[in-house]
Amino acid sequence: MMWIKRTILFLILLLLAFPAFQKRFGPVSSKPLSGVFTSAPKPVMTTTTWMNGTFQDQYRQYLDDSVGFKPEFVRLFNQVEFSLFAIPHAERVIVGKHNELFASGYIRGYLGQDFPGENFIDEKVRMLKFVQDFLWQKKRILVVVIIPPDKGSFYPEFIPDRFLRMKRHQTGRDYFTRKASKVGVNVLDFNPFFLAMKDTSRYRLIPTTGVHWSDYGSYLAADSAIRYFEARTGFTLPRMVLDSIVTSMQPRHNDADINSTMNLIWDAPHLPLAYPCFHFVSDSAKPKPAALFIADSFVWGWWDQPIIQHIFSNQEIWYYDKEIYPESHTKVKLTAEVSLREAIERQNIVVLFQVGAGSGNPGSGVIDRLYAEYDTSASNIFRIAEKKIMADAGWMAGEKKKAEENKLSMEQIIRSDAINIVNDELRKKK
């Protein structure tokens, strides 16, 4: 019996010592955790940090972050919490009924908790209508808003009851689409389209473990959008010809984007997913249009397949009107670094591509920038705000300092602050 006790004690000591051995020598390859994590550096001890206790706190954090097999211990803990208690250890993730995974923002959007106010959206629609008409009449550039389906509105039956008991308000997408329809803004809203297919589609249009449209849903939407662009512009675009559909339990691209952030040992339960296999048919003699997508993460569904690269003559995405792709795949390039007017006027199509219509402001603020650029009338509310800034010497001194710190022109800084002032006032009228 004694040898059994000694063997058990030896194994326990071995288990306790092995993480330290792994940290020091790393004999076992450890898969890093998904997401962005900053490990605490090893602190330097000084008399001051020792006496005030900060060294001890920093060193404890350093030990916690550098322990051997930390990724495996984290995944084990996360798996137990999720499997036994439906607790997700990922930022802004909600586990719904039947283990349907939601991002909290989509639930807030479904409940209308992010509604910015009717006055705010009224102004965005008015500005967008002006920009749309100006660019089409003067430059023959089509401006269109594309709204992908949001998971909160598509699967409300899976939202946890604690949220469904809350009062539901008007949503930014609903109000925006109604106002845009009345004044003739070009909108391609895929929410009704997807809801119409919800009960009849053989395959998931939005994955259980993701928040974006599936590759299959993205493919269907792209096919409709291509036909829309053709009808509105007169261009003959390449056709997508479906060869087959492959089903798989292994998610691709963004089909398990929430699952990956949860850092589990094995994937959360989900149904098989469909992946279209298709090719393009085009007339090489006919030119392809140039298109700019000012978009959120849903656009990667058309990029990854790849669809954008085959349909248009260029590949240009302004991610949330901040980073320019594909350049930013290798080195970050910002929209603030390019001339807005020149970038827009080399396009045939400009697409404001955002889920929920960006809560009534699709394009992440580009509507404001375009309106400020093209409406030269004295009634332009942004130009009025700019004049107010320029008339204040103290304000201008602050603008100069801000321009130097951000390495931007005074014109850019003044316009940006004017836009912020106007939007703050609009939101106050909510």
Describe the sheet with the most strands.
6 strands, mixed
- The Rg value, from CA coordinates, equals 26 Å
Reading side by side through the largest sheet, how are the strands ordered? 4-3-10-7-8-9
Please report the number of helical segments. 20
Total count of strands: 10
**Residue fraction in strands:** 5-15%
**Which segments are poorly predicted (pLDDT under 50) over 5 or more consecutive residues?**
none
Residue-averaged pLDDT, rounded? Answer: 89
Helix residue percentage: 40-55%
Secondary-structure element pattern, one letter each: HHHHEEHHEHHHEHHEHEEHHEEHEHHHHH
Distance N to C terminus: 77 Å
Any idea what the shape is? globular
By secondary-structure content and strand pairing, the structural class works out as alpha/beta
Please characterize this protein's 3D structure.
- With 430 residues, this protein is α/β, with parallel strands linked by helices.
- The chain has a domain at 98-375.
- It has 20 helices and 10 strands.
- The chain has a 6-stranded mixed sheet with strand order 4-3-10-7-8-9. It has a two-stranded antiparallel sheet with strand order 1-2.
- Strand 1 (93-95) and strand 2 form a beta hairpin.
- Helix 18 crosses helix 20 and helix 19 packs across helix 20 (410-428).
